[in-house]
Amino acid sequence: MFYSVITCSAAVAWAPKEPLSLETVEVAPPKAGEVRIKVLATGVCHTDAYTLNGHDPEGLFPCILGHEGGGLVESVGEGVTHLSPGDHVVPLYIPQCYDCKFCKSPKTNLCGRIRSTQGAGVMPDGTSRFTCKGKSVFHFMGCSTFCEYTVVSEFSICKVDPEAPLDKVCLLGCGISTGYGAALNTADVQPGSSVAIWGLGAVGLAVAMGCRERGAARVIGVDINPDKFEAGKPFGITEFVNPKEQERPIQQVLTELTDGGLDYTFECIGNVHTMRAALESCHKGWGVSTILGVAAAGQEISTRPFQLVTGRVWKGCAFGGWKSRDAVPQLVQKYMQKKLMVDEFVTFNFPLDQINEAFKVMHEGKALRSVVNL
Ligand code: APR
Ligand code: ZN
């Protein structure tokens, strides 16, 4: 089958720290093992801002950012059998090839199949499908959803229920699944337990949702923004501590509040100091602390080793530990059955030409998530 180049609009990141620029781009047809998607909606996430701000050592420019998307398959390359044009899909920044040693292990979701080319901002054959003003433009996280059409590897995409609203379930491509899965898969929160969550953005509130589902008895939100307690209640936050209002270190405050410490803690900020506080707030003997936040390049975590010798466990996960192609369609079903909140995470909607506004409200802390409608 012959497919032609598509000319469409995209928000291009030409250089670090510059606003995104609305451009006309050319999107080449999918090659073997690739899929071209008509993107209908995309979330805006901190990882996009992290790269745009030049903090990502892997960041390459010019590029098309965006990795929380939803759309329709427009065309498929040679050999792609699990999708056909018209399918409703969510692109996946953690692929699942079913064949590499990571995919074959039940212990991890970190498929390694296209890791090196994805990190280099190109398709698995080493080239880009995007051109703008005669220049080749890099892909981002294997998704590049800030464009009306994008091309992804067949391993980086899953088919979802065609009834599901793509301008909502696009958020299951990153933030919500990350938090929810950290509670269910990584920490495996048990009924009746006590939990503290640092950072009540979309990620932290999705953790809370998972803890409530598991029957946690206490879910304490820890945030420097006092508005976050009310905002967190619908997601399962039962108590709130603002570290700024405490005279003593937060570890001490929480240890006293919980008779020796928490069963589970989660860091959803990306700050190495709160990562330490979260570990040290765990109960001796069994407390488990899970890191979800992405710290700036070069940062390191520290604690006294005695903390681990005495039975606290430090963990971390990416994309909530979900094996992406298996899990995302099931998470969409759970949402359709009203067993998983998604709509409540959408604070703003913007058209593509106002995408810089979405970054602005995110930096101002006003948005759980903004969805850009393409
Ligand atoms: N102590 C407590 N809370 C803090 C602190 C701090 N030192 N610094 C920030 N916060 C709170 C903010 O007030 C905010 O409510 O953390 C929350 C972070 O939420 P968002 O900025 O909305 O971030 P979110 O989208 O949830 O992502 C969280 O996960 O994706 C990773 O590293 C990425 O930073 C991102 C993190
Ligand atoms: Zn794999």
TrEMBL record:
Residues 32-160 form the Alcohol dehydrogenase-like N-terminal domain. The keyword Zinc applies. This is S-(hydroxymethyl)glutathione dehydrogenase. InterPro entries: ADH-like_C (IPR013149), ADH-like_N (IPR013154), ADH_3 (IPR014183), ADH_Zn_CS (IPR002328), GroES-like_sf (IPR011032), NAD(P)-bd_dom_sf (IPR036291). One of its GO terms (biological process) is formaldehyde catabolic process. GO terms for molecular function: alcohol dehydrogenase (NAD+) activity; S-(hydroxymethyl)glutathione dehydrogenase [NAD(P)+] activity; zinc ion binding. It comes from Amphibalanus amphitrite. Keywords: Metal-binding, NAD, Oxidoreductase, Zinc. One of its GO terms (cellular component) is cytosol. Its cofactor is Zn(2+). Belongs to the zinc-containing alcohol dehydrogenase family. Class-III subfamily. It is an enzyme of class 1 (oxidoreductase). The keyword Zinc applies. It holds the Pfam family ADH_N. Gene3D superfamilies: Medium-chain alcohol dehydrogenases, catalytic domain, NAD(P)-binding Rossmann-like Domain. Its EC number is 1.1.1.284.
